[in-house]
Amino acid sequence: MSVTAAQGFQAGSVEAGLKASGGLDLTVVVNEGPQWAGAAVFTSNRAKANPILWSQEAIKSGVVRAVVLNSGGANCFTGPEGFQLSHATAEKAASLLDNAGAADIQVCSTGLIGEMLPAGAIINGVEAALAGRSASDSAGQDSARAIMTTDSRPKHATIALETPEGTITIGGMAKGAGMLAPGLATMLVVITTDAVISSRELDAALRAATALTFDRLDSDGCMSTNDQVTVMASGASGIAPAGPEFTEALTTLCADLAQQLMRDAEGASHDITIDVVGAASDDDALAVGRSIARNNLFKAAIFGNDPNWGRVLAAIGTVDADFDPFAVDVSMNGVRVCHEGRPDRPRTEVDLTPRDTHVLLDLHAGAASATIWTNDLTHDYVHENSAYSS
Amino acid sequence: MSVTAAQGFQAGSVEAGLKASGGLDLTVVVNEGPQWAGAAVFTSNRAKANPILWSQEAIKSGVVRAVVLNSGGANCFTGPEGFQLSHATAEKAASLLDNAGAADIQVCSTGLIGEMLPAGAIINGVEAALAGRSASDSAGQDSARAIMTTDSRPKHATIALETPEGTITIGGMAKGAGMLAPGLATMLVVITTDAVISSRELDAALRAATALTFDRLDSDGCMSTNDQVTVMASGASGIAPAGPEFTEALTTLCADLAQQLMRDAEGASHDITIDVVGAASDDDALAVGRSIARNNLFKAAIFGNDPNWGRVLAAIGTVDADFDPFAVDVSMNGVRVCHEGRPDRPRTEVDLTPRDTHVLLDLHAGAASATIWTNDLTHDYVHENSAYSS
Q1: DSSP of A367-386, one letter per residue?
Q2: B45: contact with A, CB 8 A cutoff
Q3: Could you tell me if A225 lies within 8 Å of chain B, comparing CB atoms?
Q4: ipTM above 0.95, yes or no
Q5: If contacts are CB pairs under 8 Å, which of residues 308-327 in chain B contact chain A?
Q6: What residue spans define the domains of chain A?
Q7: Under CATH, which architecture does the A9-263 domain have?
Q8: What positions of A carry a catalytic annotation?
Q9: What number of other Cβ atoms are within 10 A of residue B283's Cβ?
Q10: Which residue in the set A44, A220, A326 is minimally distant from B296, CB to CB?
Q11: Measured between CA atoms, how close is A375 to chain B, in angstroms?
Q12: Is the Cα torsion angle B342, B347, B351, B353 positive or negative in sign?
């Protein structure tokens, strides 16, 4: 179950010839209505790809009729021709949908930066993908496959929101191994729902959900030029959900997809959850968590099953937040190895062989907390990111 | 030639039994006078090791009679007992030098964080090292070896500053594979000179020199808890140098040592010089250079001899500096692969097989510039930092 799980959505995918390795590489997810509310969030990188430059303008109407996504090329740093291609892609898709304009189409790309995509293959691909679209489950599955690059598996999720009037469905797909900002590889997400909801409510729900999910995923601190999360609502269920319940369900779905991204991060051998508690503010907790998630020495130690808690403290000492590094407790997989800045239980008691790894920091500076998800730094990460060029 | 090259300095080193692997692990460098001007700069990490906490207070007098350095343990996050050990180390050294007080002694440590050092071994080691000290060249060489941890070779340098009154000598040694702030492994540097110079002048010269050398070295963005650069002046040459000439010579010496640190960075296969030109300010140029030096995707690409310039632009797009990412030129090893944010020469023309790698960015935003030195991200880096725990 994927982007076609909710009522009112169809998807079509083709092999447009964009990937050297072959296979599906272009997909269109269409909102068949009766409503076309849309919202999106984008990479905060100033170096934005052409499809981002297009989509962030197009989304301002609050209407999304379809999302066109391609792998095999990021269309980033490709100059005016690259922007024209994103625009032409939207024009083409709109021309094949009733009463649609180019501004109703979101465009997403992923792949190598600095290479021009073959315009003809893209435009023909859009036409073929739309012609072959369907509401079937397999169409949704294909869509999730068409956006894969270094992903080892397609990622999708659905959730049913029960209301007094009946069931609302939310479905989604994701590609990538990173986060919205920053992101390891480009992260692309499309979410569909049959709820009756305005684009303004949808935007608020999406921002609340991504702030607690995709934004908390920090594989390697590298921010992509192409990250985008788009949500479309068709209204086909006829049910208008209560705002908090819808936001909660959307957050659950986003957390599911974010966890799938973490578990498929390039080359990782440990999935690391960093809980920071006792912080003076949410921002402090987040900054402390991120400093650990981005510390190569800590991440390499986890790869080697080495509970080197000194590297945790060395990492957080660089953060300008309201806490005393010498008052901090550190636990690793349930063993408190550092209490108030001094050795506590022996590090030999920590078992880091499981893939799921838990680091808990108590800053003893307040009541705020935050959770960040990351991965270890491995030989395979270096290998995949040195060989990857397609 | 090392820390004993300048007149008025002796060094003694012993195997105190601190390193599991054995070998020299404690050294004392003594300023025999007739003057004892000293200056030091320290890690900017808030998580500071006990010897740093001691030394940054002790340096306030501007007098340094000796520096005691040990490998085999960082003495960091070891609580009050750890601080007492740094203090006792200084007391012991001072008691063996005529008319010295503990505040005249700088203490430096390197090794694993969060483990208590054996106090008896340290104190006995100080006594033995001082008893065996000499002004010979081999004593200087031993000193540089005693502070090695993952270093593959000792690092030292000397420079002769010719003046109308005669020659002033500056000598120095370094350990580590990183930078002052941040640093990959702990960086410890001791510099000696026989110049006649006040501690205030020495401090100004040291800060000017480190800002352009050690502070520009960014192996992996990880900041150590123990970094320290200390300079001592004995006045034994009887010559008072002109300030600018002395600062220039000291900067040249520091650049030499910093380059040696870069070339010995853990696991590196490329030494990367990043030149940022056309920046609106020095701070902008530095921030842009650092964002590239800390980008794992860029560093992994260089390891794989892949001129993936999109990763350079994706990295700098995260920097809040005054430039347009789409107006930037990027050259790699002399080939301009990106001009004004668009592909220029084919990336296939770039040869990244040499160890020395040069990345040149022109931001087209002003006249300021900066150079940052870094390394690639390799399998060996991951290996050494996952296995390293001593």
Answers
A1: SEEEEEEEE---HHHHHHHH
A2: yes
A3: yes
A4: no
A5: 308-311, 313-319, 325-326
A6: 9-263, 271-387
A7: 4-Layer Sandwich (3.60)
A8: 186
A9: 13
A10: A220
A11: 13
A12: positive
Q: Chain B contact for A22, CB < 8 A?
A: no
Q: Pick the residue from chain B with its C-alpha nearest to A307.
A: B389
Please answer yes or no on whether A385 and B300 come within 8 Å at the CB atom.
Answer: yes
Tally the C-alpha atoms within 13 A of residue A108's C-alpha that lie toward its C-beta: 33
Per-position DSSP letters for A15-75, written without gaps between them: --S-STT-S--EEEEEE-SS--EEEEEE---SS--HHHHHHHHHGGGSB-SEEEEE-SB--
What residues of B act catalytically?
Answer: 186
Query: What DSSP state is assigned to residue A96?
Result: T
Digitized pLDDT (tens) for each residue of chain A, 390 residues in all: 699 999 999 999 999 999 888 999 999 999 999 999 999 999 888 889 999 999 999 999 999 999 999 999 999 999 999 999 999 999 999 999 999 999 999 999 998 888 899 999 999 999 999 999 999 999 999 999 999 987 889 999 999 999 999 999 999 999 986 544 444 457 899 999 999 999 999 999 999 999 888 888 877 777 788 889 999 999 999 999 999 999 999 999 999 998 888 888 778 899 999 999 999 999 999 999 999 998 888 998 999 999 989 889 988 988 999 999 899 999 999 999 999 988 999 999 999 999 999 999 999 999 999 998 888 988 888 887 776 543
Q: Which of A113, A300, A378 sits opposite B313 (nearest CB)?
A: A113
Q: Would you call B113 an interface residue with chain A, using a CB distance cutoff of 8 Å?
A: yes
Please name the CATH architecture into which domain B271-387 falls. Roll (3.10)
d(CA B267, CA B61): 40
Contacts of B77 in chain A (CB under 8 A): 310, 313, 326, 338, 341-343
Contact (Cβ atoms closer than 8 angstroms) between residue B52 and residue B46: no
SS (H, E, C) chain B: CCCCCCCCEEEEEECCCCCCCCCCCEEEEEECCCCCEEEEEECCCCCCCHHHHHHHHHHHHCECCEEEEECCECCCCCHHHHHHHHHHHHHHHHHCCCCCCHHHEEEEEECCCCCCCCHHHHHHHHHHHHHCCECCHHHHHHHHHHCCCCCCCCEEEEEEEEECCEEEEEEEEEECCCCCCCCCCCCEEEEEECCCCCHHHHHHHHHHHHHHCHHHECCCCCCCCCCEEEEEECCCCCCCCCHHHHHHHHHHHHHHHHHHHHHCCCCCCCEEEEEEEEECCHHHHHHHHHHHHCCHHHHHHHHCCCCCHHHHHHHHCCCCCCCCHHHCEEEECCEEEEECCEECCCHHHCCCCCCEEEEEEECCCCCEEEEEEEECCCHHHHHHHHHCCC
